[in-house]
Amino acid sequence: MKFLDVKTDYAFKRVFGSTSSIPLLTSFLNAILDYTGEQTIVDLTILDPYLVPKLQGMKDSYVDVRAKLANGSSVIIEMQVLNVKGFEQRILYNAAKEYSSQLQSGQNYKLLNPVIAITFTDFVMFEDINHYQSSFVLQEKTQFIQYSDDIELVFIELPKFTKAEQELVDIKDKWLYFVKNAGQLHYIPDALQEPCITEALSMVNEAGMSREELELQHRRHDFIWLQQGSLELAEAKGKQEGIEIGKQEGIELGKHAEKLEIARNMLNKGLEVALIAQLTGLTPDDINALR
Questions:
Q1: Does any domain span residue 280?
Q2: Which of 31, 66, 146, 219 could in theory staple to 172 by disulfide, Cβ–Cβ 3.0 to 4.6 A?
Q3: Tens digit of pLDDT for each residue in 234-262?
Q4: Does some domain include residue 288?
Q5: What does the pLDDT average to over 211-230?
Q6: How many alpha carbons lie under 13 Å from residue 200 in its C-beta half-sphere?
Q7: Which residues contact 23 (CB under 8 A, 6 or more apart)?
Q8: Is residue 171 situated within a structural domain?
Q9: pTM for this model (two decimals)
């Protein structure tokens, strides 16, 4: 068996954003948001359902699924596979736009419903946070009093989720393992034998897909791989240029320090500042500072 990489547009939306995805997305969101008891999501509507196998252009490196919960809250889910410039601002912009677009002119602000923006990243986003999931809301800076949770930004950094198959404990572990590792599986592990997850795996099983569907997935995967390679090359080039600049700056600093030491010795021997400046190339201010 071979499964699609769920971290790509086609596979992610095939599982969570198509017309038949409501039970899967409901289970997925309850797990990711740790919803239980009265807070459990029992119903939702997928907005702008993804019609497979249609695939838009390849200019974007992220995917999104939009849903509205039975309590009126909106959920935006994105999978960001490339750490591109402006990514953080776009997440906040999309959440704010979803929130503000609920009202027509003249409507009461009390009609506004919460927006939850869930973003999966295939790279480490917050170096100072050890846990794979973080959540942000508006709050006071010094006393951390919460102003509002109407806009909540949830980030899940997949590289930080490191559990192996035998370490999966609950449905949340299993969904995250599925999202991160589906493209590397060749069978359905015992640990993933949950009805929703086995159904999700069947939806991305290459054996049940047409040649056109597989071609769309492979093209998208190759595009992302090439983009990632370009970013890594640019980063490596930038680091090398920084090293070269650093070497040159180090040489210049060394020369300057040597001149200062010579000037200090000349001062100790009673030479005039003007003469020292002429002999060393230092400025009179540099030499006077040595006094």
A1: no
A2: 31
A3: 566 666 665 666 666 666 777 777 788 88
A4: no
A5: 63
A6: 31
A7: 196, 199
A8: yes
A9: 0.70
- Give the pLDDT confidence score for residue 168 in this predicted structure: 95
Give me the pLDDT at residue 115, please: 94
32: Cβ contacts below 8 Å, ≥ 6 apart: 118, 133, 154, 156, 172, 175, 176
Task: Please state the domain count of the chain.
Answer: 1
Tokens 């006071």 belong to residue:
140
Amino acid (one-letter) located at 211: R
- Structural domain for 102, as ranges: 9-209
For position 39, what pLDDT does the model report? 83
- C-alpha 268/C-alpha 272 separation (Å) is 10
CB 205 within 8 A of CB 182: no
Residue 214: Cβ-neighbour burial (10 angstroms; 0-12, 13-18, 19+): middle
Helix axes 211-268, 273-280, angle to 10 degrees: 140
Closest CA to 59 of 82, 89, 91: 82
Residue with tokens 């948001």: 33
Any domain includes 69: yes
Q: Is 102 within 8 Å of 138 (Cβ atoms)? A: no
Two tokens, residue 188: 């359905």
Identity of the amino acid at 135: S
pLDDT for residue 30: 94
